Amino acid sequence: MKVKNLVKKPDNKALSGPILALILLVVGVALALVAASIAGGFLFGWGAAPKVSIEKVDILVDTNGNGFITVDVRNAGGSVLTGCQVTAINLDATFVPDSQDIAAGRSQTFTADNVAGTVLGDVYTFRVQCTAPNGQTVSDTKTGVAHT
């Protein structure tokens, strides 16, 4: 009569603990690298894109109808913008400085004094236009109401 072995031998088909840990570590690092490259592409690509914005327009009118205009411009991109100029769309105004380079993240104030024909309560439109390092023109437009 044969006696069967009632004790089973361990199954050698399973992965050992250290090998399983190594596989999980490699997969985790790979996923982290993929996530970082995607996030970096979104963040750094956006931050380096040239962008300019007019943050504030102030139009002060004196009793003689002369306007004193202040336009605050910000370089909201990640590169230096050159030749930034502010123009008034519906008003004859000359701004100082005439043209200005603005570093990334910096602001510049443009002013125009004694602008004749500025009417209290009227809405005026201003545009800033700059050149990016790649030759692209970037601009922004903002309106302001003349006040005392």
Automatic annotation (TrEMBL):
Domain of life of the native organism: Archaea
What transmembrane ranges does the database entry give? Answer: 20-46
- Species of the source: Caldiarchaeum subterraneum
Q: Which UniProt keywords apply?
A: Membrane, Transmembrane, Transmembrane helix
How is this protein named in the record?
Answer: Type IV pilin
